[in-house]
Amino acid sequence: MKARYLFIAAAVTLAAGVWQLAGNARQASLMRDQILAKDQASQDPTADLAALKLFSSTHMSAATRVELTASYQRDLTAAETAAQPSGQIYASAQKACASKADSITQARCVTDYVSKNLKPTGISAVMPDQAKYVYDFKSPVWTPDAAGALMLGSAGLFGLGLFTVLRRKQRRIL
Fold it and tell me: Model-level pTM?
């Protein structure tokens, strides 16, 4: 067999492997977009996250990052709402400062009253950790999927082509 045919086959196989790698990246991107759409619609993306994790771990070039910003914003808003002081402190401040003559003095009085009577609520303990809403899915350098098989086949054909060329040169020397 002629070496040039092996090199051509290696190039075609390599091109098909690169095309398959791009397909893996597209599929991971589509899966990520579905997860983000579910997150925006307030649906639970847990099953989809597990499917993306499995896909990324078994396919080359399928690494992706998912940030559930809508879930984080919902949880952050809920935490901030829960951490806000009740309106009773503000109402009490207005009542206590109602006798002040002008609005500037009354506003300072209300601010002082609220700051003195507001008890810390431990807001930092209540706020959600943004890192828990970020998922990094890594993909291995090589996997036995279609892209991996094509890359391995391309390397094998290229190696066989080199072997053929070297063997022919060696025969000429002898």
Answer: 0.72
Helix (H, G, I), strand (E, B) or coil at 23: helix
Distance CA 145, CA 132 (A): 30
The residue type at 35: I
Closest listed residue to residue 68, CA positions, set 52, 89, 81, 55: 52
Token pair listed for 42: 């307030």
The angle, 0 to 180 degrees and rounded to 10, between the axes of the packed helices 146-173 and 3-40 is: 160
Q: Residue for token digits 């989809």?
A: 48
| Residue 86 identity (one-letter amino acid) | S
Interval 89-144: pLDDT, tens: 767 777 888 887 777 777 778 778 777 776 655 554 468 899 999 999 999 999 99
d(CA 52, CA 46): 10
100 and 106 in contact (C-beta within 8 Å)?
yes
- The SS3 call for residue 65 is strand
- With beta carbons less than 8 A apart as the criterion, state whether 56 and 136 touch: no
- Bridge partners of 67? 134
Are the CB atoms for 138 and 86 separated by under 8 Å?
no
The amino acid present at 156, given as its one-letter code, is G
Query: Which tokens hold the place of 11?
Result: 């190039």
